[in-house]
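Friendly challenge for the regulars: who can give me the structure tokens for this chain first? No prize, just bragging rights.
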Amino acid sequence: MEVKVGDTHVEVTIKHFHYGDIIGGKQISPYSILKAIEVGNSAVHLINRTLPVYGDEAIRSVFLKWQQIQILPEFYKNKIEPSSPPSYIDLVNRQMKVRVCSLPIRNSSQMREVMVFDLKSESPLFIATALSVNVDTTTRRPKPFPQSLKDHYTAEKCQKRIKLSQEMKLRGQSLFACPPNEDGIFVNEYQINIRQIDVNNHANQAAYAEICYNCLGEAFANSAFGKTGLIFHHEISRMSFLYLNEANYMDKIITFVWQDGANPLIYKFHVKKGSVIVCQVEIELFAQENSRKSHL
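First reply, four minutes later:
Bragging rights claimed.
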């Protein structure tokens, strides 16, 4: 892995995906996509560690509040082009670069823009925008970032931006209501497993992509929402996450999914522990006619 560190941005070259990431030999799992982005976000701390009054303990107090990932058509291209050997080998061998640009700090919060692109073709594969919050680990309330970070991440220094991330239409930043009609809701039960636990001993950000993707897959397998067949035959265009509470190892959670009333390609999720919403998620699919055929 090669890492280049700038004043307010980092670039990480990775060969991230392996055969376990390829679902049915057709598609890289959403969990693996978020883990690739997580590699880039983790590298940001290489900048922060060089600043005064900042160390490993401070890193553990910064929590992701919201993020959105836009998956671009180019991401799916290798798996549908005629190729020999099979196209999933192209996906596994794909070397990528993750570029993360940090934006100015606003007291207790900070936005980041991320782009992952293919090194061979230099084509963007997916982009993301995320909001992180500095939290007092005792009170669980937001607290100001250290002054050294505020002084470093200023508007003057944070000039490097990712245009594609800026152009995204941001969704799912506030809590939406579950529809009152239970007939249109599919419900799935799940238990948090050990690989989903992070350094803070709770389910990491990528866990909720896996949970909701599994739930939607089970819904399609049960012909919910008028869908049939396997989930990996449907290509994801966007995922939005609002992180509200914690789920821990072995917690039993219930996921509720329903179709958006205005756009049938959007599926909305509430991931609950008991009566508490732990995470809110939106998954948007590519329209079938704009999916594989248009990528050729």
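The chain has two domains: 1-168, 171-296. Residues 106 and 142 are 12 Å apart (CA to CA). Your move, everyone else.
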